[in-house]
Hints:
The protein has helices spanning 2-9, 16-22, 37-58, 64-75, 77-87, 103-122, 124-139, 142-148, 152-163, 202-216, and strands at 167-177, 180-189, 192-199. By secondary structure, it is α+β, with helices and mostly antiparallel strands. A 3-stranded antiparallel sheet has the order 1-2-3, covered by helices on one side. The chain is elongated, with a radius of gyration of 22 Å.
Amino acid sequence: xxxFIILNFGYRPTDVNIFKKALRHxxxxxGDLNSNERLEFLGDAILDAVVAEYLxxxxxxxxxxxxxxxxxxxxxxxxxxxxxxxxxIRAVLNYNQSRNLNISSLEGNAFEAIIGAIYLDGGFEAAKxxxxxxxxxxxxxxxxxxxEEIDFKSRLIIWCQKKRMKIDFVVIDEQHIHxxxxxxxxxxxxxxxxxRGKASSKKQAEQxxxxxxxxxIGEI
Length: 220
């Protein structure tokens, strides 16, 4: 277990018992106090604070709304389950294997519990160093999250509002081809043409056009 923590979190445990508890699911416990749930609660708060500071420093030109949106993508259950799976936390997790449990969810929760354990064992700076210098760099692809998860339309609208510019999403073409619809959307900012996008729905075409526009104006 110690080697697992060192390898995946870049941290050497002092009090091994805290980490044993972080890896103990309530399905094996006589009560919740003997499981990793309290450590999960603590780790969630530490993770939230560290990721917020990390994004604040990494994206100095973006506003609170954008940073909040990106943070939610980093700390949501899907991302945490992905991190837990990449780390293969299930290999060291103690749980009742006879029960039908969502292992991915268990791994994500245990990941947060381990962060809580690092905080109790080494303090906030140790948890911050582990997350920023090891976990986020190795297991979180921010560029991928930006590419796949961020709402480009919302980001562009926020940018235009800050610059006090008028933005319009214009459907310039829609066709029904071989049983499927195809839409083409153009974006106009202060009546000037910018990005265009094609997709099978208006919403997706707007996202494609918004992403292209953000690239044209140097925002991504």
